[in-house]
Write a structure and sequence with these properties.
By secondary structure, the chain is of the alpha/beta class. It has helices at about 5-15, 20-25, 30-45, 60-90, 100-105, 105-115, 130-135, 200-215, 230-235, 245-255, 285-300, and strands at about 50, 55, 95-100, 120-125, 145-150, 165-175, 190-195, 220-225, 240-245, 260, 270-275. Helix 1 packs across helix 3 and helix 1 crosses helix 4. This is LysR family transcriptional regulator. InterPro entries: LysR_HTH_N, LysR_subst-bd, WH-like_DNA-bd_sf, WH_DNA-bd_sf. Belongs to the LysR transcriptional regulatory family.
């Protein structure tokens, strides 16, 4: 018996409609109907009165609904208890972070945390926004470190995944020092050679927001990569322009190897936020969160 069959049955009991429940369960209606039928075969009785509309439960179906709800609740509670116990005994704090934050922000931030809490054992997963959000929502990490901007919200319910501000960065359009900057922001006859973040990455969406604010530009995309460090290497070799976080190019800016173009209208400040699940954290993770909240409040002049 597949656990999904119980979840399907509860959905059908709630909606009274095969089509609505199939959409809710993200399956086709024929597949959904087969799963309900498979549950009935496994139980050896009919649960659904298919002669009525909206769909109603048989007497057996009404009795089994209570059992199905109790089973799902008990299994969910047991799973939560197992995960919490595993968290208590797990020595490493698990972080997920965007690749740029992994290289530029995390090492310094962790050093500051350890100066208050002592040495920590950490495990860091680096990926794109989708993978990082999935890791947090599925319970595969304790924390997510991510850029954040109100124009490009992260799809996490703040009631289920609270966050705290732990840092800031700034995204600048830059070129190599020797690159001609007089043609910015480009013309149809002479477009600016532009190196973009891969589609659907978070920084790609941020740059798209900047470009929407500045529609009078002509760019010719000559290179794409999901990683800021890869774009930085191409910019340093004079291949064109890219938007890069200041945290990743601070030394190059100071040494004039990279030069900003366009002025403040083409730049954007980014928050760096630490996200967690609203579920109870293991002690070491809870200590990190409490310190991050305290530090954020102190930086804001609160408390």
């Amino acid at each position: 018996m597949d656990l999904k069959w119980l979840e399907d049955f509860i959905s059908l009991a709630n909606t009274g409609s095969f089509s609505r429940s199939a959409a809710e369960r993200n399956v086709t209606q024929p597949a959904f109907s087969r799963r309900i039928r498979a549950l009935e075969v496994w139980l050896g009785t009919e649960l659904i009165d298919r002669s009525t509309y909206p769909t109603t439960m048989t007497a057996a179906g009404r009795a089994f609904r209570t059992t199905a709800e109790e089973v799902l609740t008990l299994l969910g509670q047991q799973r939560d208890e197992f995960q919490l116990e595993r968290a208590r005994t797990r020595p490493a704090l698990r972080f997920a972070a965007l690749s740029t934050i992994t290289l530029t922000f995390f090492p310094r931030w962790l050093r500051d945390i350890e100066s208050y809490l002592g040495t920590l054992t950490t495990r860091l997963f680096s990926g794109d926004m989708h993978d990082c959000v999935e890791a947090l929502s599925e319970g595969h990490c304790d924390f997510l470190l991510s850029f954040s901007h109100q124009a490009v919200p992260i799809m996490l319910d703040p009631t289920q995944f609270p966050s705290v501000l732990v840092g800031q960065d700034r995204l600048l359009p830059v070129v190599a020092q020797a690159t001609d900057r007089s043609g910015f922001p480009g013309t149809k006859e002479d477009p600016v050679r532009y190196m973009a973040y891969s589609a659907n990455t978070y920084l790609c969406r941020i740059v798209e927001h900047i470009l929407k604010r500045n529609p009078d530009h002509q760019f010719e995309t000559c290179y794409e990569n999901s990683m800021a460090e890869a774009l930085k290497a191409m910019v340093l070799e004079g291949h064109g322009l890219a938007w890069l976080p200041v945290s990743s190019i601070a030394q190059e800016l100071e040494r004039k190897k990279l030069v900003p173009v366009g002025g403040p209208a083409w730049e954007l400040s980014l928050d760096i936020r630490l996200y967690r699940s609203a579920n109870r954290l293991p002690p070491a993770a809870a200590a990190v969160w409490e310190h991050a909240v305290l530090t954020s409040r102190q930086s804001a002049g609160i408390g």
